[in-house]
Amino acid sequence: MNAKGKAFRYGDNVDTDVIIPARYLNTSDAKELASHCMEDIDGTFVKNVQQGDLIVAERNFGCGSSREHAPLAIKTAGVSCVIAASFARIFYRNSINIGLPILECPEAVQGIDSGDIVSVEFSTGTITNETTGKSWAAEPFPPFIQEMIAADGLINYLRKGVQA
Amino acid sequence: MSMTMSQKILAAHAQVDEVRPGQLIMADLDLVLGNDITSPVAIKEFAKFGIDSVFDKSKIALVPDHFTPNKDIKAAHQCKMLREFASDMEIENYFEIGQMGIEHALLPEQGLVDAGDLIIGADSHTCTYGALGAFSTGVGSTDMAAAMATGKAWFKVPSALRFNLTGKFSPWVSGKDLILHIIGMIGVDGALYKSMEFTGVGVSSLTIDDRFTVCNMAIEAGAKNGIFPVDEVALAYLADHCKRKPVVFQADADAEYDHTYEIDLSKLRPTVSFPHLPDNTRTIDEVGEVKIDQVVIGSCTNGRISDLRVAAKILDGKKVDPRVRTIVFPATQEIYLQAMDEGLLRIFVKAGAVVSTPTCGPCLGGHMGILAEGERAVATTNRNFVGRMGHVESEVYLASPAVAAASALTGYISNPETIEEN
Ligand code: SF4
Questions:
Q1: I need a labelling partner for A43 at 20 to 30 A (CA). Which of A77, A105, B205, B270 fits?
Q2: Residue that wins the pLDDT comparison between B166 and B24
Q3: Candidate from B45, B122, B364 with C-beta closest to A155
Q4: Which of B288, B381, B366, B287 is nearest to B331 (CA)?
């Protein structure tokens, strides 16, 4: 599985309240959530994002609440991968559990500007800025998590275990 | 190998002799929690298992506390999903409006939390129960669904930061000031992926409510969990609330910590977090002139009886500034009743505050106290992110109940030390 698209660039501590404000949490409908994705930090995100685009952010992306609605909104908005210098731990966990690819790579984050075309090879963790030609190697997931992603998330992973 | 207190609880629940930081484990859970925002997603995921019962109907707690009493039709629908699922699965700990309280105050009060427990909740402030010596942490809805089906969850074993406490608080300083001070010191990602373990001779001077407040905000430093040793104060609380026998884990004397911070409680000042991150702290002496429109006293951080007592002590016989909307929301029905019996609710109403039913309401900008553009609130809650309590151009200042109550009287962020008692 690979990702390729335009980068939307953000700073430190992008929290779950700006990714999907609580005022929209009276629904769990993924499409409706996606239509408000990033609204409080970037009002034009939903209008401009296209299938396959990436979010690139600095430290502690996804801090705050445990709302799975946050990675769900990002995934449903069409984002193929989030690259950050670091992630808040519940967001990290939720993303893996729902099958939103996320990679930690501070060096890549420094080398990517808003609007750059970025590609990612998930098997190797290679991140390439197609606009500048630079590439980086992100830490690949540990085997346990790779298995979970291969099974398309936690629920399927566990169901396979139950059946085996 | 030596282990921290958190690591010992994880090892025991994974049925292994020892765990190392970074290790991935599957562990048995003592309690699984969800609320009216996170459970509907979990219920949909749970359906994918195609099973007709949960792993243990006594070990799941469903609390419709966020948008309740139902704030609109959509919220009513989400709560209905919760209610029907609870009924179908015969969940023993479903709390309907009338018994419902804010989950992290409610579960310990109802005796659902014991020392040594391993608890996950689809709510980030599940870390609150570390106050009673449990390992508890927030997860998402998919984890909750899997846990309701299997009784298990996966964990990456955390390393730990130690906070060694000495001394005692001065008057008007409380657990809130301690945790705001710590977050200001280490930053909102200062404990990312780690446990925060509190130790030292200063622990014994902290009330159980102080400890709940401190552990509640461990997540605001990025931590996986916060935890206190189980001493006489914790055991006394457990004896009053929990029917099960406490299982006391202790960190090994030579347990390894990534860092140890020394904190003298007597040196702490009332502390305020400025917008828009909890680590943007200033002591009350550095606050300057900040005019406010609203004061919110309550939440899973500071909506307990001791918090209401402090606020009432400051407001007793006085009037809040007429330009400041002051909203008090006790965290549970029991706290509400106790506040009524002690005459605290009368003090609030006489002072010109409103008292709300237990709900998360204003804390997350849900309902019952939303801010308009350009407005400022002092809140005893735990987050001051952009738009947290309303409009994106509004501001939330986090503080203790003492600072919040003092500010309600003056209309500016104020030092409780300067308020004369009646
Ligand atoms: S009171 Fe606020 S922080 Fe606590 S559970 Fe409710 S919304 Fe979350």
A1: A105
A2: B166
A3: B45
A4: B381
Token pair for B354? 């409103």
Atom of ligand 1 nearest to the CA of B360: 6
Verify whether the Cβ–Cβ distance A40 to B387 is below 8 Å: yes
pLDDT in tens, chain A (164 residues): 689 999 999 999 999 999 999 999 999 899 999 999 999 999 999 999 999 999 999 999 999 999 999 999 999 999 999 999 999 999 999 998 998 889 999 999 999 999 999 999 988 889 999 999 999 999 877 777 778 877 878 998 888 764 44
First-to-last alpha carbon distance for chain B, in angstroms, is: 57
Domain B273-421: which CATH number of 3.30.470.20, 3.30.499.10, 3.40.91.80, 1.10.287.110: 3.30.499.10
Identity of the amino acid at B222: G
Architecture of domain B5-246+255-263: 2-Layer Sandwich (3.30)
Question: Which residues, at least 6 apart from B46, have a Cβ–Cβ distance to it below 8 Å?
Answer: B54, B85, B145, B148, B149
Distance A18 CA to ligand 1 centre (A): 16
Per the omega criterion (within 30 degrees of 0), is the bond before B69 cis?
yes
The 8-class DSSP code of residue B371 comes to: B
Q: Quote ipTM for the complex.
A: 0.90
pTM of the model: 0.95
| Mean per-residue pLDDT over chain B, rounded | 97
Q: 């995100």: which residue's tokens?
A: A45
Q: Do B385 and A69 touch (CB under 8 A)?
A: no
Distance CA B135, CA B196 (A): 11
H-state helical runs in B136-228: 141-150, 175-186, 208-216
Instruction: Write the burial class of residue B99 (CB in 10 Å: 0-12 exposed, 13-18 middle, 19+ buried).
Output: middle
Q: Within an 8 Å CB–CB cutoff, is residue B138 touching chain A?
A: yes
List all residues of chain B from 170 to 209 with a beta carbon under 8 Å from chain A. 188-189, 192-193
Q: Which residues contact B110 (CB under 8 A, 6 or more apart)?
A: B93, B241
Angstrom distance (rounded) from CA B56 to CA B58: 5
- Give A154's contacts in chain B (Cβ within 8 Å): 142-143, 146, 154
Q: Which two tokens stand for residue B183?
A: 């977050």
- Look at residues B150, B97, B95, B98 and name the one whose alpha carbon lies nearest to residue B120: B150
Is B304 close to ligand 1, i.e. is its CB under 6 Å away?
no
Closest CA to B137 of B95, B196, B64, B203: B196
Instruction: Name every residue in A having a CB less than 8 A away from some CB of B.
Output: 13, 15, 17-18, 21-23, 25-28, 40-41, 59-60, 63-69, 71-72, 86, 88-90, 93-94, 97-98, 142, 144-145, 153-156, 158-159, 162
Q: Of all helices (H) and strands (E), which one includes residue B351?
A: helix B344-351
Q: Where are the domains of chain B?
A: 5-246+255-263, 273-421
CA distance B122 to B107: 14
DSSP state of B141: H
Q: Which residues sit opposite B154 in a β-bridge?
A: B26
Decide if B5-246+255-263 and B273-421 have a common fold.
Answer: yes
